[in-house]
Amino acid sequence: MAKILIVGANGQIGSELVGALAAKHGAQNVIATDISPNNLYAAPRYQVLDILDKAALAKLVEEEEIDQVYQLAALLSATGEAAPLKAWTLNMDGLLNILEVARVRLEAGKPMQVFWPSSIAAFGPNTPPVNTPQMTVMDPSTIYGISKLAGERLCEYYFAKYGVDVRSIRYPGIISYKSPPGGGTTDYAIAIFHAALKNETYSCFLEADTTLPMIYMPDAIRATIELMEAPSANIAIRSAYNIDGLSFNPQELFEAIRAKRPEFQIEYKPDARQQIAKTWPQSLDDSKAQQDWGWEAHISLPQLVDDMLANITV
Ligand code: SER
Question: How far is CA 29 from the centre of its chain?
């Protein structure tokens, strides 16, 4: 059993990770926090925390004797482009505050494991796009992607220099039904289901053939927990691991949905998010994650489509 802090619990990953960790470690051992006073997903324990308030973070970690923290508060790719300085401050200072608190705890003999999410957005236009290697050219072009790449370097630095047990995943686009689509370029693949269930024509902001790596939320949650539970000695990569789920483009996803809802229609109206998407990989080489902690995706596109259509409430 670990005593766990989740920062950004009202976001897409937090909304599902809180429950998964509470089931494993006990509801009283998982403290969900977010900047809003609203406990949007009925976390058993919830309190307000601004991740940019380092003193408040350190106090909470100390009082609750936290030994595992998930720092999930961030602005995503499209939202970040609308407010680059805000995105940089939140994404970088949020991570640095966690790493610093973890360093000080470790020096006081109280080790705290850290999880922080990286992303396919850390790659860029000169990255090999198919089966993207773990180690390769990374030249992100969004402020979100730049913060993810810098964050990866910080994670490795805090592990190498101070021994902080920090772990990270380069998530593909995560598809889920619990939270609304929230400012990401890959979120078309969530919004499309909402349109299908409302019997609306979906106006897609990416081009029909824009293939991106994606993952269904249950696989993403399992990856996160498996990485955090793996023995520290197995975790050879302290920047962030590639994980692959499944790859498809908007037209392929549309056709998979139309197989279940034959009346569904789509139109393509690419916007600025197309420019972002075309700099990202199409699929990822995740052999390091397979080797080091046994990663394997389970969920196929037809399973994902069935589950999304059965569970979204519109
Ligand atoms: N899903 C994210 C986004 O589209 C990528 O990490 O911004």
Answer: 22
pLDDT by residue for the chain (314 residues), tens digit each?
A: 899 999 999 999 999 999 999 999 999 999 999 999 999 999 999 999 999 999 999 999 999 999 999 999 999 999 999 999 999 999 999 999 999 999 999 999 999 999 999 999 999 999 999 999 999 999 999 999 999 999 999 999 999 999 999 999 999 999 999 999 878 999 999 999 999 999 999 999 999 999 999 999 999 999 999 999 999 999 999 999 999 999 999 999 999 999 999 999 999 999 999 999 999 999 999 999 999 999 999 999 999 999 999 999 88
Closest ligand 1 atom, CA of 183? 7
Which residue(s) pair with 268 in the sheet? 204
CA of 62 to the centre of ligand 1 (A): 32
Q: Which amino acids are annotated catalytic?
A: 144
121 Cα to the center of ligand 1, angstroms: 7
Mutate to test the pocket of ligand 1, among 91, 179, 187, 279 (most ligand atoms within 8 A of CB): 187
Residue 278 contacts residue 121 (beta carbons within 8 Å): no
- Ligand 1 shell residues, CB under 6 Å: 76-77, 119-121, 144, 171, 173, 184-186
End-to-end CA distance of the chain: 37
Question: 262 C-alpha vs ligand 1 centroid, how far in Å?
Answer: 29
